[in-house]
Every structure is written in C-alpha cells, then in structure tokens.
Amino acid sequence: MKTYQTKQTRDINITIRSYVKERDFIDHAAKVAGKNRSDFMLEAAKQKAEDTLLDQRLFLLNKKDMKAFMDVLDNPPEPNEAFKKLMSTPAPWEK
User: Inter-axis angle of helices 37-54 and 20-32, to 10 degrees?
Assistant: First the structure.
C-alpha cells in the first residue's frame, strides 16, 4: 500500500468515539507498525475506503458474454505497449 504521509500539516480533524480497549488495541498495533495513532488509523481507513470503492463493480452479462469474459480472464492476451503503459501509470489516489 502506498504511504500517504506528507510534510504538509493536515487541515481537518476526524473525530470518532471508541472504547478504551479499542483505543489501546489500536495504539498497540500502531506502535508495532512504528506509527502514531493518527497515521495508523488514517492509513487503515483510507485503505478500507479504497478497497470498498474498488469492490463496487457489478457485471450484468448474458451467458454468451459471460463465457467470453471468463475466457479472457482465464487466457489473457500477451501484454502490449499500451497495457504496459497503463499498468505503469499511478492510480489517481497515488498521485
């Protein structure tokens, strides 16, 4: 996962309520990761947000199109230059 730390000062607070045990658990994990609570929680929340948004894709295909789609997934073509360029371009959230 890309690290989202920056030298700029963050400009907004995000406040959540928690139980002491949850906070202590998070603090322990943050310490193990070498991060402070804010950086640890923000990184985890952004990763979960990214995963959630990327998982929200629905394919509605008839049987013929589904078979063709699965055939391409099971037997992908060799990468061409356009594909290599696409895969080397950072995602918008990585810029």
Answer: 90
